[in-house]
Design goal:
single chain, Aminopeptidase, 7 strands, about 170 residues, about 35% strand, seven-stranded mixed beta sheet, alpha+beta
C-alpha cells in the first residue's frame, strides 16, 4: 500500500498480534448495532479471520485496516472497506474508534487517508456509508469529508426495543 500515514495515525494491515484488540472491539456490545453482530466472536474464529486477512480486496470484496497511533504504535480503531464492487466502481466504508480514543480527530484522519487510496488505487467512482439517524457524530464526520445524504431507510435498525432510521451517504468523484 501507498503511504497511509498521517501526523497522528497510520493505517496498516491486520497482524496476528491484533487478536486481543480485535477480540475486544468485536465483542463490545455497544457497537453491535452498527456491525449487525448478535453474538460474541470467539478467539478461535478471530484467529482464523486474521489468517485470511491478507487476501486481496478483489477476491474477498473487503479490506479491514487497523488505525494505529503513530506515537504509541497502539491500535485505536478499525476502518473497513466492504461490499467492494469493481464492476460498478463502488465500495462501502465504516469506521470504529475504541471508546477511550474517541473525540481526538482519529476517525477524520483515517477517513482523510483512506479516501485517496480508494479513489486512486481501487479506482472507485463512489464510496457510501450507512449511518443511523441518531449517530450525529458520524453524520458530522462524513459530511465534513463531503459525503452527501442521499436516502433514508425507514425503521431499518431494531435496537433496544425500538426501530431507527438508517441514512445512506455517498461521496461520488
Amino acid at each position: 500500500m501507498e503511504n497511509l500515514t498521517g501526523k497522528k495515525i497510520s493505517l496498516r494491515a491486520l497482524e496476528p498480534e491484533d487478536l486481543e484488540f480485535l477480540y475486544a472491539v468485536e465483542n463490545n456490545e455497544t457497537d453491535w448495532e452498527v456491525s449487525n453482530t448478535q453474538a460474541p466472536f470467539s478467539k478461535y474464529l478471530l484467529k482464523k479471520y486474521l489468517k485470511n486477512a491478507h487476501l486481496d480486496i478483489y477476491e474477498v470484496k473487503q479490506l479491514r485496516l487497523v488505525i494505529e497511533d503513530c506515537n504509541s504504535k497502539q491500535p485505536i480503531g478499525l476502518i473497513d472497506l466492504f461490499d467492494f464492487n469493481p464492476q460498478h466502481k463502488r465500495v462501502g466504508i465504516g469506521i470504529l474508534i475504541a471508546a477511550e480514543f474517541q473525540q481526538n480527530g482519529f476517525a477524520s484522519d483515517a477517513l482523510a487517508l483512506l479516501l485517496p487510496y480508494a479513489f486512486l488505487h481501487l479506482n472507485v467512482h463512489q464510496l457510501y456509508a450507512n449511518i443511523t439517524s441518531d449517530n450525529t457524530k458520524s453524520i458530522a464526520l462524513f459530511e465534513k469529508h463531503d459525503f452527501k445524504e442521499v436516502g433514508v431507510k425507514k425503521d431499518w435498525i431494531f435496537s433496544n426495543g425500538k426501530f431507527k432510521d438508517e441514512l445512506l451517504f455517498q461521496l461520488i468523484k
